[in-house]
Amino acid sequence: MQFGIFTVGDVTTDPTNGRTPSEHERIKAMVTIAQKVEEVGLDVFATGEHHNPPFVPSSPTTMLGYVAARTDRLILSTSTTLITTNDPVKIAEDFAMLQHLADGRVDLMMGRGNTGPVYPWFGKDIRQGIPLAVENYALLHKLWREDTVDWAGKFRTPLQSFTSTPRPLDGVPPFVWHGSIRSPEIAEQAAYYGDGFFANNIFWPKEHFKKLIELYRERFAYYGHGTPEQAIVGLGGQVFMRKNSQDAVREFRPYFDNAPVYGHGPSLEDFTEQTPLTVGSPQEVIDKTLAFRETFGDYQRQLFLMDHAGLPLRTVLEQLDLLGEEVVPVLRREFAKGRPADVPDGPTHQSLLARRDTKEVDV
Amino acid sequence: MTRRIVVITAGLGRPSSTRLLADRLAAAVRRDVTDGNVDNPGGDGEVEVQVVELRDLANEIAQNMVTGFPGPQLRDAVDAATSADGLIAVTPVFTGSYSGLFKSFFDVIDKDALAGTPVLIAATGGTARHSLVLEHAMRPLFSYLRAVVVPTAVYAATEDWGAAGDDSLALRIDRAAAELTAQVTARPVPRGGTGAEAGETFVPFDQQLAALAPEG
Question: Which of UniProt's keywords are assigned here (chain A) (predicted)?
Answer without folding.
Answer: Monooxygenase, Oxidoreductase
